[in-house]
Design goal:
This is RRM domain-containing protein. With 152 residues, this protein is of the alpha+beta class. The protein folds into two domains: 44 residues, no CATH class; 80 residues, Alpha-Beta Plaits, CATH 3.30.70.330. The protein is 25% helix and 20% strand.
């Protein structure tokens, strides 16, 4: 095959690729394929709408941990998730946590009732966190139960 034939073949394949890529489509290709065809479409990620609001609970006293919190706040309604922030090295509580209830009405009632509640000489600070401010990795490791070394 001569150089003229190679150039003609290359020009022909470029025209074919441009014709395929210039087709009007709803979504643009996420990347170009090496074979010259249209690019593969990546699946669109949908954000999960979380209707149940998250409560921030601050100034949690010493000794009021996951088990006690679940029992205490369970009197208001069913708890979906509960997480107390802890020090990674020592496992000690950082005195704040998050609770997610099944129902938004219950969460609002808990926030109104428990804000500035005196518990073990500490005033609890309870706020409803707006859903747009909830970090996606907030609940990473929420089901982990810390077991202190002294209670073997």
């Amino acid at each position: 095959m001569g150089t003229k034939a190679k150039k003609a073949l290359k020009k022909k394949s470029l025209k074919r690729v441009n014709a395929i890529n210039n087709k009007p489509s709803e979504h643009a290709a996420d990347f170009l394929s090496l074979e010259g065809g249209p690019g593969r479409k990546l699946p669109e990620l949908k954000q999960l709408e979380n209707s149940s609001p998250v409560l921030y609970i601050g100034r949690i006293p010493h000794g009021f941990y996951e088990k006690e919190m679940e029992a205490y706040f369970g009197q208001f309604g069913t708890i979906k998730r509960l997480r107390i922030s802890r020090n990674k090295k020592t496992g000690k509580s950082r005195h704040f946590g998050f609770i997610e209830f099944e129902s938004p009405e219950v969460a609002k009632i808990v926030a109104d009732t428990m804000h500035n509640y005196l518990l073990f000489e500490h005033l609890l600070q309870v706020f409803v966190v707006p859903s747009e401010h909830v970090h996606p990795r907030l609940w990473k490791g929420f089901n982990y139960r810390y077991k202190p070394l002294d209670t073997l």
